[in-house]
Amino acid sequence: MGIPYDMGSVMHYGPTAFSKDYKLFTIVTLNKGYQRTIGQREAPSFLDLALINRAYCSDKCSKLPCENGGYTHPRYCDRCLCPAGLGGPYCKENEPSKESSCGGVLKAAVFSNWTVISSPDYPKPFRKGQRCSWVIKGDPGTRLFVEFIEKFSMSCSETCEDYVEVKSGSDLRSTGMRYCCSAELPKSVIWADDNLLVIIFNAASDSGYFGFKARVQQYGESTRPFTAIGTTHEPTSMTTNLCKQIVEPAVPEWSVWSSWSTCSRECGACGLETRLRSCSGPSSLCQGESYQHRRCNAIPCIGRATCSDALFLDQPCSHNSMQICSSIDSKSRPCEFSSCCKPYEPVRGRCQLRQGFSGDTL
């Protein structure tokens, strides 16, 4: 049906799907940028809805000249339904911002200048519900690239809930690479396939984190950047004397683990807390993992409901009868119940793994 594979589909399994302890990654994306995109349950993705609309609503409206992968809205025939991060009547603008005046349609700067974007109020903490998107364009025939600068601070979770999403491919319908863990940011720039980038910031929690800052530049024959991909000018002819210096290479080693993050859920062993460490050299030279997570807040969640008590009433079967007849009645009362997220269950005031699952009790 012409629908590409979508890492952000609400139907996609998460990174730890089918693992016995919900800790080890069982799905690893070929492009590391998508590792924390998979498994999102925020809402159906643009392509999830496109598949449904194509199957059931394709004949509702005449087609509009939608751009960037958008299509005519099957309910409102005078507008386009646009991929995440895009908006406007024909998907040529940015998605309207939420809870903040941020985002926009920008022209990518030319070397030696930069187009700089950041989360709202950076470096002050962002707020729950804020969402921004930037549509960044370059001149025809150029390519854009983006790199994160300064400090990056978001809640690092198994599947990103607070995130900055980079859509760098030529097909803007698909969910982009989502970043929420500072230790996993790309060490080099992220190249777009062409002269268009869409970047989305989404805040799902009030956590005290301050977000991100990034800069964008366009690259072409007449606009060659120096800082991002090295010097490009032709050297003049000259004679130099080269000296060879032998340096004993340092052995890369891990830093100490960071403190555990705030738990992402308040109860029921439903949430995760994470911690990170960094390698002093290329991460491939350090043995072990740079990221750990564990279940947290193992106190069962308390729910409230209305319970019914059965009452058995004995009385004479009829007037002056010696026989006793019983009837049943019920009485309602408020009651509480404890619950935990699967595969945990409440046991003596704690959430514990059910029998048959391996792992430690929280």
Automatic annotation (TrEMBL):
MF GO annotations: metal ion binding; metalloendopeptidase activity
Annotated protein name in UniProt: CUB domain-containing protein
Domain of life of the native organism: Eukaryota
Keywords: Disulfide bond, EGF-like domain, Glycoprotein, Hydrolase, Metal-binding, Metalloprotease, Protease, Zinc
Gene3D superfamilies per UniProt: Collagenase (Catalytic Domain), Spermadhesin, CUB domain, Thrombospondin type-1 (TSP1) repeat
GO biological process: proteolysis
Keyword Protein transport set for record: no
Peptidase M12A domain boundaries: 1-58
InterPro entries named in the record: CUB_dom, MetalloPept_cat_dom_sf, Peptidase_M12A, Sperma_CUB_dom_sf, TSP1_rpt, TSP1_rpt_sf
Keyword Cell inner membrane: no
Domain CUB: 102-219
